[in-house]
Amino acid sequence: MAPDPVAAKTPAAEPAPRYFTWDEVAQRSGNKERWLVIERKVYNISKFIRRHPGGSRVMSHYAGQDATDPFMAFHINKGLVRKYMDSLLIGELSPEQPSFEPTKNKELTNEFRELRTSVERMGLMNANHVFFLLYLLHILLMDVTAWLTLWLFGTSFVPFVLCVVLLTAVQAQAGWLQHDFGHLSVFSTSTWNHLLHHFVIGHLKGAPASWWNHMHFQHHAKPNCFLKDPDISMHPFFFALGKILSVELGKQKKKYMPYNHQHKYFFLIGPPALLPLYFQWYVFYFVVQRKKWVDLAWMITFYVRFLLTYMPLLGLKGVLGLFLMVRFLESNWFVWVTQMNHIPMHIDYDQNKDWVSTQLQATCNVHKSFFNDWFSGHLNFQIEHHLFPTMPRHNYHKVAPLVQSLCAKYGIEYQSKPLLLAFADIVHSLKESGQLWLDAYLHQ
């Protein structure tokens, strides 16, 4: 029998979409299978996580959860990313399923998404390239001035100290600048951001971009969430952090350190030791172990340049002394600034709250001033940075009033404090959590 010509022209029916419930998604959060939801679509990321440019752990931290808001926050070219996601799509939420998990505030999330749309329309996600060019030039100027100080005035005590101070400022400010490029907040394309990120963190600082991405995006995805945020991985082996975790540690009768004295030994093993005794050596292990040879090549250019610049003036021992003193001072600068916004805040296991609540309970601000902005690389606006991680830093103060209004409407605490008080709060919070651990350890 001849084939029906009408039937031959009829296209094959599209396969019916697979539907899932939130419970089914939540069950896929382990090692064997990982799913997540973005804009009601369900994706199987089990194999893709190893190829994810932001690192495997960032996606894994949202396995079994809705990842719509972090997806919107971290990517600058969402259309391109969505094309790569098509191969991971396995279905969508059933029509009767809500768009939000029960642990998340629907009204707050919807209003924040409207705020983000308004912020984009206002152009606050667009960078002023002159700002970042001048910022880079001021770093390079300090770098050259440090060398000229020794070349012109000799290597006696005063010129040497001035050189150390200038190089410390170079390293700290380059750290804040690489942070901008790493967050893709300077250029509209990822390629240029990545290239300048390699230059600043690799050539100006001697550290690998891949290591920074691996660590920092986890922090942004789940700030102050134990076992997910690497910035609080010093709990419990060095410090007892947060009220909840400290009490839990005490009840379990665990004592890796005398935590009731941690606000004292923090001054010994915290700010002065992090960079010279841990990061300085760990980054080389990281790039070799993961075979990040491009990062290693960039790092080597920093050390070659440093040796060629200062060896003729100081000799080998002098260069080593200069380098270690700079790393020591930079470490103090880095730790106080980065921890003032987070350590005093709420620390707990991941409660899978909405994006705004997750970020606000883990971050606080330091008052705006010319010095505070420069000293912290605008990370005194930590709240705005965490809500809009790809926003150029010079626009944080512009969006801050809008964020404050949103927080006030929903009864969310928006903390902003003086710089010195923010530093003191680190010590006070360590003392409080140490005492909570001791009370639980002795009496519960």
UniProtKB/TrEMBL annotation:
UniProt protein name: Acyl-CoA (8-3)-desaturase
Pathway in which this enzyme or protein is active: Lipid metabolism; polyunsaturated fatty acid biosynthesis
UniProt-listed Pfam families: Cyt-b5 (PF00173), FA_desaturase (PF00487)
EC number(s) stated in the UniProt entry for this protein: 1.14.19.44
Catalytically driven reaction(s): (11E)-octadecenoyl-CoA + 2 Fe(II)-[cytochrome b5] + O2 + 2 H(+) = (5Z,11E)-octadecadienoyl-CoA + 2 Fe(III)-[cytochrome b5] + 2 H2O; (8Z,11Z,14Z,17Z)-eicosatetraenoyl-CoA + 2 Fe(II)-[cytochrome b5] + O2 + 2 H(+) = (5Z,8Z,11Z,14Z,17Z)-eicosapentaenoyl-CoA + 2 Fe(III)-[cytochrome b5] + 2 H2O; (8Z,11Z,14Z)-eicosatrienoyl-CoA + 2 Fe(II)-[cytochrome b5] + O2 + 2 H(+) = (5Z,8Z,11Z,14Z)-eicosatetraenoyl-CoA + 2 Fe(III)-[cytochrome b5] + 2 H2O
Keywords in alphabetical order: Acetylation, Electron transport, Endoplasmic reticulum, Fatty acid biosynthesis, Fatty acid metabolism, Heme, Iron, Lipid biosynthesis, Lipid metabolism, Membrane, Metal-binding, Mitochondrion, Oxidoreductase, Transmembrane, Transmembrane helix, Transport
Sequence similarity: Belongs to the fatty acid desaturase type 1 family.
Top-level taxonomy: Eukaryota, Metazoa, Chordata, Craniata, Vertebrata
Residues spanning the membrane: 123-142, 148-170, 265-288, 300-326
GO molecular function terms noted in the UniProt entry: acyl-CoA (8-3)-desaturase activity; heme binding; metal ion binding
Entry keyword Electron transport: yes
Listed CDD domains: Delta6-FADS-like
Cytochrome b5 heme-binding domain sequence ranges: 17-94
Alphabetical GO biological process terms: unsaturated fatty acid biosynthetic process
Entries under SMART domains matching the protein: Cyt-b5 (SM01117)
Location within or outside the cell: Endoplasmic reticulum membrane; Mitochondrion
GO cellular component: endoplasmic reticulum membrane; mitochondrion
Bilayer topology: Multi-pass membrane protein
